[in-house]
């Protein structure tokens, strides 16, 4: 039987409710890879006929996690950033996304002076997913036409996050761009 978005959100809710912390998020990563193996889902959610931009596919009213489709018509390279008190699982569907992970060297946690060290870089290919835990600093770089599904622990429109300017050695507070409602 084909693994659907409905099955994914049910299984993700069970995983997150039953396994707290990073282990539950790892289960979501594995489940997202299973969902991305469903070609019909990928085509519908992030295929050529899918709307360009970012939109909510699902928001769990009890646990708060959100499933988003990202259809990117133009290439983009983000600065290093975190998801604040939330986590994220990125699942690549079309083309690729180059991911970089960072460690903060200055001991700070908020905005202000900040020094980062890149600790890991890799490419997410179609069908693969990566977990970025609470407070994890990362940057994404994708080509024109890259498409992915992202699951976040909560709606990032309501989460204080940080963006890092490595040249200036600063961290600043940011807000997410509003995604369309589910």
Protein described:
The chain is α+β, with helices and mostly antiparallel strands. The protein is 20% helix and 37% strand. It has 3 helices and 12 strands; from the N terminus they run H-H-H-E-E-E-E-E-E-E-E-E-E-E-E. Strand 1 (53-59) and strand 2 (66-71) form a beta hairpin. Helix 1 (5-18) runs antiparallel to helix 2. It is globular, with a radius of gyration of 16 Å. It starts with a helix and ends in an 8-residue tail after the last strand. The model is unreliable at 178-182 (pLDDT under 50).
Q: Please state the average pLDDT score.
A: 94
- Protein structure class: alpha+beta
Largest sheet: 5 strands, antiparallel
Percent of sequence in beta strands: 35-45%
- Compute the separation of the termini in Å: 26 Å
- Share of helical residues: 10-25%
What is the ordering of alpha helices and beta strands? HHHEEEEEEEEEEEE
Low-confidence stretches: 178-182
Question: What is the radius of gyration computed over CA atoms, rounded to a whole number of angstroms?
Answer: 16 Å
User: Biggest sheet, strands in spatial order?
Assistant: 1-2-10-4-8
Q: What's the tally of helices?
A: 3
List the helices and strands and how they pair.
Elements lengths: L4 H14 L3 H15 L2 H8 L6 E7 L6 E6 L4 E2 L10 E7 L2 E8 L7 E2 L2 E9 L4 E4 L4 E6 L4 E6 L8 E5 L4 E5 L8
Antiparallel strand pairs: 1-2, 2-10, 3-9, 4-8, 4-10, 5-7, 5-9, 6-12, 11-12
Helix pairs in contact: 1-2
